[in-house]
Amino acid sequence: MRQIILDTETTGLEWKKGNRVVEIGCVELLERRPTGNTYHQYINPQREFEQGAAEVTGLSLEFLADKPLFADIADDFLAFIDGAELIIHNATFDIGFLDYELSLLGERYGRMRDRVQVEDSLLMARQRFPGQRNSLDALCKRLGVDNAHRQLHGALLDAQLLCEVYLYMTAGQGEIGFGGDESSQQTAVMPAFSIPAQGARPRVLVSPAELAAHESRLAVLRKKSGDKCLWDLPL
């Protein structure tokens, strides 16, 4: 499965007021593993920032003046995300802005959901941590994701942080081997933007006694929960 963690920065809070996208950041996952493949682009919005928006991002019209227009990067951006599942924190915001940008280019581009599936990590967080703050910073703190370097909002940085948060919220791992051949003996996935996506990975060997203890514990959980437990659910 191919997933894209996506974030945008904009000139303001509402696309209906004519605000535009100024930055897009994407991180690619294949089978829940960061591939090291990213997409990052600054965009000239051809309009002023709303009050406070530039302060949040640290961007300015002067910096963006020589950057391409959305029309110039649309095809490359869409080629990167086409067919993927997008993971977005507060997806309504980002999808609304991207749909607006596409609408300015004409009907042939359609809408984002014509091309991709969308998963809102904010809704996931609210279900898992009801009644708590579920901003990206709050989730980083709660899940132990280091965000000390996040002094300003940045699309690629935020996408990288959200990638770690998403993997932890969805069990924090993608693969665990419990016996079988060497190809199945793989350790838990950890976000790894600074290490190669490929390379040797340590084997996880489980003894028969550990397997028996594991099955015994699952039997107790199944009995308490009506013959099912979380480990029985498909990934």
How is this structure best described in words?
Strands 3-2-1-4-5 form a 5-stranded mixed sheet. The protein is an alpha/beta fold. It has 2 domains: 2-169, 2-Layer Sandwich (Nucleotidyltransferase, domain 5); 182-232, no CATH class. The N and C termini lie close together (12 Å). The chain is elongated, with a radius of gyration of 21 Å. The protein has helices at 53-57, 61-64, 70-81, 91-103, 121-128, 136-143, 155-169, 208-224; strands at 2-10, 21-30, 33-42, 85-88, 117-120. A hairpin with a 2-residue loop joins strand 2 (21-30) and strand 3. It has 8 helices and 5 strands, in the order βββαααβαβαααα. Helix 6 crosses helix 7.
Summarize the helices and strands and which ones pair or pack.
Elements: E1 2-10, E2 21-30, E3 33-42, H1 53-57, H2 61-64, H3 70-81, E4 85-88, H4 91-103, E5 117-120, H5 121-128, H6 136-143, H7 155-169, H8 208-224
Parallel strand pairs: 1-4, 4-5
Antiparallel strand pairs: 1-2, 2-3
Helix pairs in contact: 6-7
Q: Which key terms come to mind for this protein?
A:
five-stranded mixed beta sheet, Nucleotidyltransferase, domain 5, 2 domains, 16% strand, 235 residues, 8 helices, alpha/beta
Mind telling me which CATH architecture of the largest domain this is? 2-Layer Sandwich
Distance between the termini: 12 Å
- How much β-strand is present in the residues? 15-25%
Q: Please, how many helices?
A: 8
Biggest beta sheet summary = 5 strands, mixed
Helix fraction bin:
25-40%
H/E topology pattern: EEEHHHEHEHHHH
Top-tier CATH class of the largest domain: Alpha Beta
Number of domains: 2
Superfamily at the CATH H level of the largest domain?
Ribonuclease H-like superfamily/Ribonuclease H
The CATH topology assignment of the largest domain is Nucleotidyltransferase, domain 5
Uncertain segments are 172-190, 194-204
Order of adjacent strands in the largest pleated sheet: 3-2-1-4-5
SSE class: alpha/beta
Overall residue-averaged pLDDT value: 82
* Structural Rg: 21 Å
Task: Tell the overall outline.
Answer: elongated
Q: How many DSSP-defined strands?
A: 5
